[in-house]
Design a protein that fits this description.
Elements lengths: L7 H59 L3 H98 L1
Helix pairs in contact: 1-2
Length: about 170
């Protein structure tokens, strides 16, 4: 006699939640990877501007050593300021992107934590189900044993009655 586990629907719902949480973790991991890739690109762009700034600074020093005209030096200095502003802008982009990476990392860790909690819930229900099934088997065995005892008693009484009726 198979009795249906009363929390079967709850267990199925919790398993579906685990599957959903696993999908969320995968999505968060993918988002983190995308943000890390953008960070690498931003850092590469910043390095390119930084190298350009360094080369222009070196050119200015060389021109100063050569003793060129004042207007050319002024022009180089103003261009250097423009490149320096661009470098600051690239630094800000890198910082902003790093913040996005940090946020994506935090989101991923939270999603993993939620997944672990949901897995624990499923484990608890699974453990309960196993214990419940064990109890049901014990009860069934006790019922069967009781029925066998009753059958034995009935059979004994029948034989006794038959032997008594034969003796009469």
């Amino acid at each position: 006699m198979a009795i249906k586990y009363p929390l079967k629907e709850v267990l199925e719902i919790k398993k579906r939640r685990v599957e959903d949480a696993e999908r969320v973790v995968q999505e968060k991991r993918k988002i983190l990877e995308q943000e890390q890739q953008k960070l690498k690109e931003a850092e590469a762009a910043r390095e390119k501007v930084r190298n350009h700034y360094k080369s222009k600074l070196q050119q200015l020093r060389e021109e100063l050593d050569r003793g060129t005209t004042s207007p050319k030096i002024q022009q180089m200095k103003s261009y250097l300021k423009v490149v320096q502003e661009k470098l600051k802008l690239e630094d800000k982009k890198v910082k902003d992107q790093q913040d996005k990476v940090d946020l994506a990392t935090k989101d991923l860790e939270e999603a993993k934590h939620q997944l672990n909690l949901k897995r624990l819930e499923v484990d608890k229900v699974e453990t309960h189900r196993k214990e419940w099934e064990k109890e049901q088997r014990k009860e069934e065995e006790m019922i069967e044993e009781k029925e066998m005892n009753e059958l034995g008693t009935v059979a004994y009484l029948l034989r006794r009655k038959q032997s008594e009726s034969l003796q009469e």
